[in-house]
Specification:
Layout lengths: L1 E10 L2 E11 L3 E6 L6 H8 L7 E6 L2 E2 L5 H5 L2 E4 L11 H6 L3 H4 L5 H13 L15 H14 L4 E5 L7 H18 L2 E5 L3 H7 L2 E6 L2 E6 L1 H4 L2 H8 L2 E7 L2 E7 L1
Length: 252
């Protein structure tokens, strides 16, 4: 599990994560939601040691993320950042191979190649494995980056806005694949999403943040009420049961 204990982060005089304590259980999919500026991506970045913290402690299966050697942490936890830009021209296979670097240090073994091929296959990228990343659609490119994270073969996958720039069809496809990853591969997936309805349909737990604090940490069914959603987003909202899921409709 991931244990977050009284963690804070400031930029100058602005506190963006404010004394957050939270336990993310092992297994399944946990989604962090909330309005812009809630501290969602900052909290995810501190979990993965991309940025430091002013106070508090974060552990992954008991390993302190600030003191654990990078190579050890990279075999336990992987992250897909919100902004993925490539300067080099890489094929899908080349990109996915980067996920094996914590193990191979650039010298791929048979096991590394097997993991790469398995990740490409799982994300349904086989027909485009030799195509360059800049030749792919937005949805295909995002799947390639997720395949890279899968190839790293960690117990925990942290994904910051994996639906960025995806249309509805590709966003649904991505969420289905991530749900499949949690269920069939036994991974623990932690997502940051803006869309509460995607979170409701696919998550096991939802963590709602606002103004740097955790407001709720509960199941989708308990979170998806008009009163709770209105308190998070400061908008009027109605909630409807559609296809076995609770969906929020926001309005002023």
């Amino acid at each position: 599990m991931i244990e977050i204990d009284h963690v804070s982060k400031r930029y100058g005089d602005v506190t963006v994560v404010d004394d957050v304590s939270l336990t993310i259980p092992k297994g399944g999919m946990t989604t962090i939601i909330g309005p812009n500026g809630a501290g969602k991506s900052t909290l995810l970045s501190m979990m993965s040691r991309l940025i430091g913290m002013e106070a508090g402690r974060i552990t992954v299966d008991g390993l302190d993320v600030t003191t654990t050697p990078s190579r050890d942490l990279a075999t336990r936890l992987s992250i897909l950042r919100q902004d993925n830009h490539l300067d080099a021209r890489l094929t899908v296979r080349d990109l996915v191979a980067f996920g094996r670097y914590p193990y191979s240090r650039g010298r791929l073994t048979v096991e590394d190649r097997d993991k790469i091929e398995a990740a490409i296959d799982f994300m349904q990228l086989d027909p485009m494995r030799d195509r360059f990343i800049d030749e792919l659609s937005g949805g295909q490119r995002q799947r390639a980056f997720v395949a890279m994270v899968l190839a790293q073969d960690t117990d925990y996958l942290l994904l910051d806005e994996p639906l960025n720039s995806l249309d509805m069809k590709h966003a649904v496809g991505m969420m289905r694949m991530l749900r499949q990853t949690a269920d069939e591969l036994g991974k623990t997936i932690v997502l940051v999403l803006h869309d509460i309805n995607f979170a409701s349909c696919y998550s096991d737990r939802i963590v709602a943040m606002a103004d740097g604090k955790v407001l709720h940490n509960t199941s989708p069914d308990l979170l998806m009420t008009p009163e709770t959603l209105a308190s998070i987003y400061e908008l009027d909202v109605s909630v409807h049961d559609i296809g076995g899921h609770r969906i929020g409709v926001f309005y002023r």
